[in-house]
Amino acid sequence: MSLKLLTLSACIALSLLLAGCASAPSSYDYSTFEAEAPHSILVVPALNNTTNVTAPDWFLSTISQPFSNRGYYVFPANMVRGMLNDSGLSDAGLVHSVDARRLQTLFGCDSVLFININKWDAKYLVISTTTEVQFNYEMRSCKTNAVLWKNSQSIKYSPQGASGGNPIADLIADAVVAAIQKGAPNYMPLARQANLAAAATPGLGLPPGPYLSK
Questions:
Q1: Class for domain 28-200, per CATH?
Q2: Judging by beta carbons within 10 Å of its beta carbon (0-12, 13-18, 19+), is residue 114 exposed, middle or buried?
């Protein structure tokens, strides 16, 4: 093989290697987070960007445990909502526009977690229903209002189709399952899964907190 051909082959191989490296998921930059080393997280009511008016209340019951399990003190959700109401911050949109330093004066927190609910939907297609949730997470410092950490999660679920060997019976069964899912979509497991992924995914979730059990 000629030197020119060897050089060309080496360049191609190097290009493929660099392309592979570029496509690999990168770790979150925790430098700001680590500089502050927060011990506590105040989770404020989620901002609902969907048409489902019950989404924030259902979501609120799923958010505390994954972040508490990472080793941080998470303020009790009902206590937080009550104190915000008493302070004239009953509207989630108003809370999300507040400087995190103001919340520190109310709660004595190290950080505030703001969450947007962007999808809480069930799409019905006669023989299938796809349930989907999508959330954006942003944690801000109670000392500086700087962003300490961000994440985004999107999860879909579609029930598996029937496979009884009878095509007509399978279609009917699928339609029944889809109708049930449409009438009462089960968002909670998806919300829990999304919150767990946001909090605990290595390199993208939260670093282990000071209260993490060894």
A1: alpha beta
A2: buried
* Spatial separation of the C-alpha atoms in residues 151 and 9, rounded to whole Å: 40
Angle between helices 55-68 and 77-86 (to 10 degrees): 120
Cβ pair 46, 136 in contact under 8 A: no
Q: How far is CA 126 from CA 121, 155, 185, in A?
A: 16, 21, 15
Q: Which two tokens mark 126?
A: 């006669």
Q: Which residue has the tokens 């259902």?
A: 58
Q: Is the pTM of this model over 0.85?
A: no
User: What is the 8-class DSSP label of residue 2?
Assistant: -
Q: What is the pLDDT of residues 32-84, one digit of tens each?
A: 999 999 999 999 999 999 999 999 999 998 999 999 999 999 999 889 999 99
Pairing of strands 111-124, 129-141: antiparallel
Spatial separation of the C-alpha atoms in residues 102 and 79, rounded to whole Å: 17
Beta strand spans in the chain (E)? 40-43, 47-48, 73-74, 111-124, 129-141, 147-157
Retrieve residue 157's tokens: 């679920």
CB 83 within 8 A of CB 107: yes
- Residue 115's φ and ψ, nearest 5 degrees, are -130, 135
Name the 3-class secondary structure at 184.
coil
